[in-house]
Amino acid sequence: MKVFIHSLFLMLALVVAAPSFAGQSAAPASATSTAPAFEESAPAKKSEIRAEKNRRPHELGDTQLIAGILGIVVGAFGIHKFILGYKKEGLIMLLVTVLTLGLGGLVMGIIGLIEGIIYLTMDESEFNATYVEGHKGWF
Q: pLDDT below 70 — which residues of the chain?
């Protein structure tokens, strides 16, 4: 059991550190941009503007991180689904795990593990488009 827990934390550390190994810079986009600061960017889509107005600072990044970690650690209970606002999918995962006395929890745990890794490896804008605005319930 200890080995399993240690391997989960090792996978989590590798997923979080993966962008630095892939050669991606950790510097903000504004620091690496060659465009002068006084130029205006292209007009954004209405959905992006609406999402930015409704978003509190760091809310999406924190939600993505929390949902990813919960998906990996306790994915069988569907808590990561509730964090994202998917009540029906979270309830399905929770009921399958509880009503099958844990036997179905193995399958739900694997699904949660996969979803947690997907959440953590996605770019924030892609995560927002897919799971926050797109409401994609599974994978």
A: 1-60
